[in-house]
């Protein structure tokens, strides 16, 4: 609890100054009035440099993720909610229950306090919705031009209490089934539409979402799941190639089975992009043994974030680890990694 | 969206594939070149080669804008940003990764501090020039007759708005001379049996533009749209012509291509550009009357004149066989570099850079997946 009251910052018109990161009274004001207020929680309010939390017995899972997205506010989310979802999802892909996050802010001198408050409030909301606490934080201010507005790094911890769970990228086996939790490409196209000033008849919203609830339902019903991964940068194409490399297997994906929103498909056509290489922030790929695939699909489709889930293909024995696509017309091609830069700073 | 679905109907595609198989004569092969990179991309992306009988060989042509740009021209752009750090150089995305002499790229130049930006259209270049009135903005213009009218429009917009800081480094090239070079380059032997003519280029220049070449070399041309059913229908039309011994120009893409093309766009090109006496193409060598320069009326917006850019002759990776690949004379997989250090991720030659390039297409395609597998394994080793 704060020991003395803080004089209020001008959160409407004020701007971040170098003093707000210098360790003095000004920094304490900023932390208290912006971050503690928006993010809440006892651990943060305690004012220590650490958070002490009680963790249930099990295997600890940790992850960290930096966020530099531009624009900071995009259709369907903002850098604050994305910073929560990104790390929650990374931890959740182990099958673990996600417990706590920490957040580090690098803020550019002159950044509007009102926008910082909005970002912090968005983070607080996203964390509460995901059922995780933000328990520790750090703020640095860099001189004007030293960064672009605000960069946010979050770290997360979770715990695996179910000993049966063994989920990792090198565990895919020939014969296993590939499942995808919903439509692909929404996040990347939402960012692109905002950045390039493209107007679509139906606005395309980012799919940014915390997937820990969906994962909890999946692992409870099908603990035999072998691989979970969220196809963010590089899209489904990169994620499947990563898993194929780690597991030493090939894959065959049926194009007709991959859900793509008509508006995203149209935008990709227009821009010459392959939806499979476009980023997602609220989707996951699951790989499980064939006899459990239907059960897993049913559980996924019963969850709001897995409504459009589909079985999209299978794992093959292939020492060359090639990921192939059976096109809608019945042809074949290789799904390769995205080469070069499609769109920088999408997350 | 209906548009996309209708032209990609799997049942109709299978029907066309059956018709093609029925039309193919057992005693011969059909070597068909899709000139345009847009077709190459569509063929690979949809896996169309797998739907065709073995006797029909699709050969990827040189119609990939970044592929045919000689290394020397890219060296000139790199020299420009090196010698003039105040310049903002903007260009289409694929150009960023094309290797110039010594493996230099615009992407590397940017990392080293040059202000190089990727744009989606000439309008972006115009906006950049307006947003930075105190800095010279140079648009590195590449491409065939499809991207030429937008560049022409940019130049007239710059003139009309009196924009002093915008200029264009013009590298626009023309399709019919390149087709002529490929068909005439092999001496007596006929290198190809038919050509799938470009879609968007033909909407600008019209189908008449190919008539002389088809007649002279005795090779049929069918202008096709970019959708899978367009391409399959064009293959069928070509095979029928070949079987009949005809060498005509036919248009499958009738919904967009007229015999005289787009007169407005042609007039705009005529106003702004003039034929270069000769221009060096990667792979095809120096071709007369095959490229465009900016007319004297627009000299103030011509980057080559404004910055007195000296012509450079580039040095390609000597093992790179992009030249033979562009002529359709070498299968990309038979290049010594294919998969051995040259992949879409680390391209050594331009044909591996763009999704429209023959080598990148072969890497993604098969048709003999074993070929691609072997290359992949080599790459990892």
Automatic annotation (TrEMBL), chain A:
Domain of life of the native organism: Bacteria
Domain PurM-like C-terminal: 173-324
GO term, biological process aspect, one: protein maturation
PurM-like N-terminal domain ranges (all copies): 47-159
Entry's family note: Belongs to the HypE family.
NCBIfam families in the cross-refs: hypE
Protein name: Hydrogenase expression/formation protein HypE
Organism: Roseospira navarrensis
From TrEMBL, chain B:
Xref: InterPro entries: Hyd_form_HypD, HypD_1, HypD_2_sf
Pfam families: HypD (PF01924)
Any one of the GO BP annotations: protein maturation
One term of GO molecular function: carbon monoxide binding
UniProt keyword annotations, A-Z: Iron, Metal-binding
Family annotation (PANTHER family): HYDROGENASE MATURATION FACTOR HYPD, HYDROGENASE PROTEIN ASSEMBLY PROTEIN HYPD
Family per similarity comment: Belongs to the HypD family.
Protein name in UniProt: Hydrogenase maturation factor
GN (gene name): hypD
